[in-house]
Amino acid sequence: MPVLRVIHDPDRFALTIERLCRHLIEEHGDFANTCLVGIQTGGVQLAGRLRDKLTQMGVTGYDYGKLDITFYRDDFRTAKGPLTPQQTEIDFLVENKRVILVDDVLYSGRTTLSALTALNHFGRPAQVELLVMVDRRFRRSLPVKANYRGISVDSLHDEYVEVQWAETHGQDQIILTGSE
Amino acid sequence: MASDQQLSTKHVLGIKYLTAADVELILDTALQFKEVINRPIKKVPSLRDTTVANLFFENSTRTRISFELAEKRLSADTVNFSAASSSVKKGETLLDTVNNILAMKVDMVVMRHPAPGAHHFLASKIDASIVNAGDGTHEHPTQALLDAFSMRDALGGELRGKKICIFGDITHSRVALSNVFCLQKLGAKVRVCGPPTLIPRHMRSLGVEVSYNVDESLAWCDVANVLRIQLERQDTKFIPSLREYNRHFGITRERVDRLDKPVVIMHPGPINRGVEIDTAVADSEHSIILEQVENGVAVRMAVLYLLAARRKEG
Description:
The complex is a heterodimer. Chain A is of the alpha/beta class. Chain A is 27% helix and 30% strand. Chain A contains 4 helices and 8 strands, in the order E-H-E-H-E-E-H-E-E-E-H-E. In chain A, strands 3-2-4-5-6 form a 5-stranded parallel sheet, with helices on both faces. In chain A, strands 1-8-7 form a 3-stranded antiparallel sheet. Chain A starts with a strand and ends with a strand. Chain B has a 5-stranded parallel sheet, sandwiched between helices. Chain B has a 4-stranded parallel sheet with strand order 2-1-3-4. In chain B, helix 5 crosses helix 6. By secondary structure, chain B is an alpha/beta fold. Chain B has 2 domains: 15-139 and 293-313, Rossmann fold (3-Layer(aba) Sandwich), CATH 3.40.50; 141-290, Aspartate/ornithine carbamoyltransferase (Rossmann fold, 3-Layer(aba) Sandwich), CATH 3.40.50. Helix content of chain B is 37%, strand content 14%. In chain B, strand 3, helix 4 and strand 4 (129-135) form a beta-alpha-beta unit. The radius of gyration of chain B is 19 Å and the shape is globular. The A-B interface holds A 68, 70-72, 76-78, 81-88, 93, 117-118, 120-123 and B 1-6, 29, 32, 35-36, 39-41, 43-46, 305, 308-309, 311-312.
């Protein structure tokens, strides 16, 4: 689909990452009882950026994991194509921990619901917060709300918000695509 | 990592009918399920809307439990059928048995049957997906898949170019045939080794090396997959005695200690200790027999999951 506009260029993207990290530090301090879990695949990329920035800011020593929700999705047989599972790497229990679930785009909320179900299989967290890079407002199918958001975007049904990463697209940016 | 492909087939009737891509997809998906079964809560909800019937017309311990566990880990409902305590004893046909079960809205069938080709017959008559849990001396596809998964794990992630030798009663073994097909699809070099009376005459036509020398074959291979002497399938005596078999063809501690390189030891079970393999070898540091059992659940979860994902397309 054609790119309609660039929502965040690499400079704004980096600024947003820094702001999110400062907000996290404000809420979680030294992350003593906090863990960061990225939802495959976009959330893992974002969690990686956050971890790098937090390290620069002197916050280290917390648990970090990757969560794949393929087997928990509710569109198992109605998805447009085959669902390919990615890796889950959570080698710690989330029992009584404050978990920051990270995803790139919040849209219907179904991914978050699946992630919460999956997360419960690693223990009973004391608290779960949701951090997203993009909150597509007014598109929620479930009562899900982000605690931390990079940017809110209002978009039409036939438009698609994509977070692109340097590893795969050459630079970190957020774009809006759709029919012209 | 699994590719964005579906299985090319609606059933898993044999490795012969799977493509190499199918095999890779199953093994890659099984890797993710192996992580699931090692979590505190070993369940995922993927097949919560699916009912699976386990129809075992032959005795089984490992395979039956493994399939049932796999189904439960996927949150599927399961029904178990044993021929010994069923209307089959009253003369009910296979097709009638299965159709009666399917009429109760069962979605998938896992079947073990003594007649080779029974699953093919069924596949032509019913809509449900069928998984072959062993058909006579023909194939046992999920065993071959879990064997390949275990070998791949033990050999650093790749089977292409590796040397695998299957030892024992090749003639009566459905595991041997499925292993041959599976390993060849993954690019491994395959050899069978055993007494001439227990190796089919036309084995070489499958592209497999044949050897009657156990010591030479052990030295050649990276993985030794040891098969059980199947006494229950031998109408005539193919070997003089079990003791003689162990002396000439058994995987003994002495043979393994003489090797100048490590070898991975496998066995699909049940083991005849002291016959095809010594206890000292089966329980040694070379053996991954128990890992095979663990991997079996993950591989069967992958098979059921991928078949269920196909269902919507008929």
